[in-house]
Specification:
flat, mainly alpha, 3 domains, Pmp4, 8 helices, PXMP4 protein
Length: about 210
C-alpha cells in the first residue's frame, strides 16, 4: 500500500513538473482549452435546457431529461472541439511565422467555426445568434474608438432598445416563422397565452387550464 502511494506521489510530481515546462505550453494550452470548453458548455447549456424544457416542452419526465442531457452534451462537445481547434491552429500559425499576428486569430476561428459550428441545428443557431448580437455591439464601440464614426452626444442605447423590441415584435406578429423556435415559444407564452383564460385558475395560478371544463 505504501509503495502504491509513493508511486502515485512520484507520478503527480512528474506531471506537475511537465506542466511547468515552457516548451510544452502551447500543446498543454490546447488540452486545457478543450477541458474548459467542455465544462463551460455544460455549465451554460444545462440550466438553460432545464428551464426551457420544463417550461415549453411536453412529454414524459424521461423524455425531458433525455432532451436536457442531449442539448447539454452537444453544447459542451462543440465548444470543447472549437476551443481545441482554434488554439491548435493559433499555435501552428504562430510557430510557422515566428510570432502571433492578429490575422491568425481570425483565420483560426473561421476554420473552427466552419468545422464545428457549420451544421445548422438549434444548438449552433443559438450560439451564433448569441455571438452575433455581441459582435454588433463590439464593432460599434470599436468604430467609435477608432474614430470611424463620431462619439454620440447622447447614449444611443435607448434608441437601440426601441428598435430591437419594435423589430422583434413586428417579426413575431407578422413573420413568426423567421424567428428561432425557442424565441417563438417564449413570445407565445408572453403575448398570446396572456390573451386566453377561463376562470381564476388559469388567469392567475396556471398559464393554461389542463382539465376538460
Amino acid at each position: 500500500m505504501a509503495g502504491g502511494g509513493d508511486s502515485f506521489r512520484a507520478l503527480l510530481r512528474a506531471a506537475n513538473a511537465l506542466l511547468q515546462q515552457r516548451r510544452y505550453h502551447a500543446a498543454l494550452a490546447v488540452i486545457k482549452g478543450f477541458r474548459n470548453g467542455a465544462v463551460y458548455g455544460a455549465k451554460i447549456r444545462a440550466p438553460h435546457a432545464l428551464v426551457m424544457t420544463f417550461l415549453f416542452k411536453s412529454g414524459s419526465l424521461r423524455e425531458k431529461l433525455k432532451s436536457i442531457a442531449q442539448a447539454t452534451y452537444a453544447h459542451s462537445r462543440n465548444l470543447a472541439y472549437f476551443v481545441f481547434t482554434y488554439k491548435g491552429l493559433l499555435a501552428a500559425q504562430s510557430r510557422m511565422q515566428g510570432k502571433k499576428k492578429p490575422f491568425h486569430s481570425f483565420l483560426a476561428a473561421c476554420i473552427g467555426g466552419w468545422l464545428v459550428f457549420g451544421d445548422n441545428n438549434p444548438i449552433n443557431s443559438q450560439i451564433i445568434m448569441y455571438l452575433l448580437s455581441r459582435i454588433l455591439f463590439g464593432l460599434s464601440r470599436l468604430a467609435v474608438e477608432k474614430g470611424y464614426i463620431p462619439q454620440p452626444k447622447q447614449d444611443p442605447f435607448p434608441l437601440v432598445a426601441a428598435l430591437v423590441w419594435g423589430t422583434v415584435l413586428w417579426l413575431f406578429e407578422y413573420h413568426r416563422e423567421t424567428l428561432q423556435p425557442s424565441l417563438q415559444a417564449s413570445m407565445t407564452y408572453l403575448y398570446e397565452d396572456s390573451e386566453v383564460w377561463h376562470d381564476l385558475s388559469d388567469f392567475l395560478v396556471y398559464n393554461k387550464r389542463t382539465d376538460s371544463k
